[in-house]
Amino acid sequence: SDYLRGRNAATHFEQTGNGEFYAELASRFAAITQDEYSSFEATIAKDSGEFRRIRWHIDVVKGTDRGVTEYIVSGIDITDERALEEQLRQSQKMEAVGTLAGGIAHDFNNILSVIIGHSELMAGSELLPPDLKDSVKDISLAAEHAESLVHNLLAFSRKQIREIKQIDLNNVVRSAATLLDPVIGDFIRVTLDLADMLPVIRADNSQLEHMIINLAVNAKDAMPHGGDLTFRTRAEEVLSHPLYPWIASGKYVVLEVEDTGHGMDSEIVGHVFEPFFTTKPVGKGSGLGLSMVYGIVKQSDGYISAESVPGSGTNFILHLPVS
After folding, report:
1. CA dist., res. 16 & res. 287, Å (int)
2. Is residue 260 within 8 Å of residue 223, measured between CB atoms?
3. Beta pairing class for 227-238 and 188-193
4. Is 53 left (phi over 0), alpha (psi -120 to 50) or beta?
5. Helix axis angle, 79-123 to 133-156, nearest 10°
6. DSSP of 102-159, one letter per residue?
7. pTM above 0.85?
8. Do the beta carbons of residue 159 and residue 131 sit within 8 Å?
9. Per-residue confidence in pLDDT tens, the chain, 323 aa
10. At what angle do helices 289-299 and 205-222 cross, to 10 degrees?
11. CA dihedral 102, 114, 210, 152 (to 10 degrees)
12. Helix, strand or coil, per DSSP, at residue 41
């Protein structure tokens, strides 16, 4: 390629931090015979600092009885291919977890109906001793809290009943923003950067509002000492997305929710949409907020991704298809 043409290979790879790759290449040169070829995968760092995954192929060009004297090495960039495979594995895992969560949620909902029904009967009974009334009230409150968790699990598994209609996402963001003051407090500045003439999408209005509020709550938890929370919208036509190649081509409305919080490393980002995954202390969160957001986006035939750097905030990017 033009990237390597005219350079001394050993010197170049050492200077660019790819010495380990070149050592692997040299060992394969030493092992190959006149009638063989060799292939392997390795990651290289480009001059720009970008890392690319390459499938390398070594062919013998010239050789004698005493050994190979000339090779040709070719490489195919498979970075996007590997990213798609990883996304497929992640999607399959989330689908399996969603199916399991949905089944559990429905069964658990039936159990809760019995608990709540009997609690109401007991609370209204004249035979209930006064000293047990508080206990019955606590049972009812706990059951109602469990019902809320079931609601979130059903959202993640995409089995909620929805009211679908054409929606201007800007209106949903504005409406949700008016509800945020008591949720996120006075130390977080909210900015709306909304594009004009946004195409409509087809979704459930209340679900989208709930989703935006959950993203805001997540941002608040990442900014315990205050910060900035920005909502951006825009229209985007995707042919082949350079960062997220798994997004199908088409026209989308994009919502970005960006905070200036403590951020996340890549390992946490990889698990952030899984049910019950949380980095918060025990008792401080159920781990269902972002999984519910994921379920709503998927139920709307959209895509959600997270970009984050520890210490530099987080940006959630939602692609929702244009109606």
Report:
1. 42
2. yes
3. parallel
4. beta
5. 150
6. HHHHHHHHHHHHHHHHHHHHHHT-TTS-GGGHHHHHHHHHHHHHHHHHHHHHHHHTT-
7. no
8. no
9. 555 566 666 666 665 666 677 777 777 766 676 556 677 777 777 766 677 888 888 777 766 555 556 777 778 888 878 777 776 676 666 666 666 666 666 677 778 888 888 888 888 888 888 888 888 888 888 887 777 667 666 655 555 556 788 999 999 999 888 888 877 878 899 999 999 999 999 988 878 888 898 899 889 989 988 999 999 999 999 887 666 677 888 999 999 999 999 999 888 888 788 776 666 554 454 456 788 888 888 888 899 989 998 988 999 999 999 98
10. 150
11. -30
12. strand
The length of the chain is: 323
What is the structure's pLDDT at 95? 66
Query: E strands within the chain?
Result: 37-45, 51-64, 67-77, 164-167, 188-193, 201-204, 227-238, 250-259, 303-308, 314-321
Q: Which residue's structure tokens are 């040709």?
A: 72
Tokens of 268: 């946490």
Q: What is the 3-state secondary structure (H, E, C) of 24-38?
A: HHHHHHHHCCCCCEE
Amino acid at 5: R
pLDDT confidence of residue 255: 97
Instruction: Output the CA torsion sign for 105, 111, 117, 123.
Output: negative
CB 222 within 8 A of CB 262: yes
Number of C-beta neighbours around residue 66 at 10 A: 7
Pairing of strands 250-259, 227-238: antiparallel
Q: Give the helix, strand, coil percentages of the chain, each rounded to 5.
A: 45, 25, 30
The CA-atom distances, in angstroms, between 293 and each of 59, 275, 310, 318 are: 50, 11, 22, 10
Read off the tokens for 318.
């939602």
